Amino acid sequence: MLQPFARPFSAPHRLGFLCGGAVLLTGFLLWGIELLLREGGVLLPGIPPLFWHGYVMLYGFFPLFMLGFIYTAGPRWLNVTVPPRRHYAPVVLLYATGSVLALLARALPWLLLPALLLHLAGWTLACLIWFRLIARSPAADKLHARLVALAFQLGLAGLAALLLWALNGDAELWLHGVQLGVWGLLLPVFLTICHRMLPFFSGNVLQPYLPWRPDWLLYTWVGCCLLDLFLEWLQLNTLIIDLPFAALLLYTSWRWQLRRAFAVKLLVMLHAAFAWAGLALLLFSISELLGLAGRAGLGLAPLHALTLGFFCTMLLGFVTRVTLGHSGRPLIAGGLAWTCYWLMHGVALTRVVGEIVPVFGHYGYLLAMGMALVALALWGRVYLPMYWQARIDGQAD
């Protein structure tokens, strides 16, 4: 029988989710401390908070969760065996070590460069493992796997841009790294996984239900992400892309029957999170339209709707579902998971409103951080131990 310290290494999702959860909690805690110190008039020396925050929140924990998921579910898509522990464990640990150094780099700036080097090395190896699984696959349909591979490569380019920023301090390189993280890595991966999994999950529990996930829909989504990225680089207004992108995402949410999903808590956690994607792109469109009219835009509201609203709530929903299923527990969202999940929606809404209504922004920032810490700490207290506990049904991982 595996001992608790060895069990996280028995499956990719255990190790990836455990490391990702630890970095997620620590990252939000440190950012909360930063905000409280700033409230008291204390400004810490070191890397400027904005630069550190953008790097850690995009590249610190999301990739760890991605690796845990994609090395668990991806082999099923491709009809291949799960990569062996000697392959995935060093990669996840290498990347996680980079994330730990990235967290510490706020106060110890000399750790920024080794953090990025470890991230770059770990993500390169992670990409190679994924490419090898695709190459070995006999599956006829590799669309989702290949689009994830493309996003992984863009994430690699984003880390490379951040590495160059760390070397020469060019803020434009930092911005390119962040843009690649949002539009090149995270949004395409999240949308690709949603396209693959949400209609499948819905069809399993909602009857009658006709799954709808045409290939053209996914190609269009990813194409919009890449066009957005290209226009951002050119510093052009992205309204021409974001408005139809928003309409298509909102239509998909309706077509996937968001309203019916409320009948099953664990399912609506995924559908309600997906709805933020369309709302975020709609906010981007409104902000850009205001800019064309010569008025102030919506600030960081659209970005927080995307990152906190879509990415974080979807992360909580997906990780909860995968964790329950792979720990031998019923696929039922308990009261705590349900409460924490909606608290994260409150975090996103508070940050969005805080950007749009400036008088609320200052207090909204602190309120949002407080809610996020409560939600993540309570969720982590229940779910993180599952990664070093045996399955309750006695089955092997």
UniProtKB/TrEMBL annotation:
Superkingdom, natural source: Bacteria
UniProt key word Transcription: no
Keyword annotations from UniProtKB, A to Z: Membrane, Transmembrane, Transmembrane helix
InterPro entries listed in its UniProt record: NnrS
Pfam annotation, one family: NnrS
Keyword Membrane found: yes
TM ranges: 15-33, 53-74, 86-105, 111-135, 147-167, 173-195, 239-254, 266-286, 298-319, 331-353, 365-384
Name by which UniProt lists this protein: NnrS family protein
Species, as recorded: Chitinilyticum piscinae
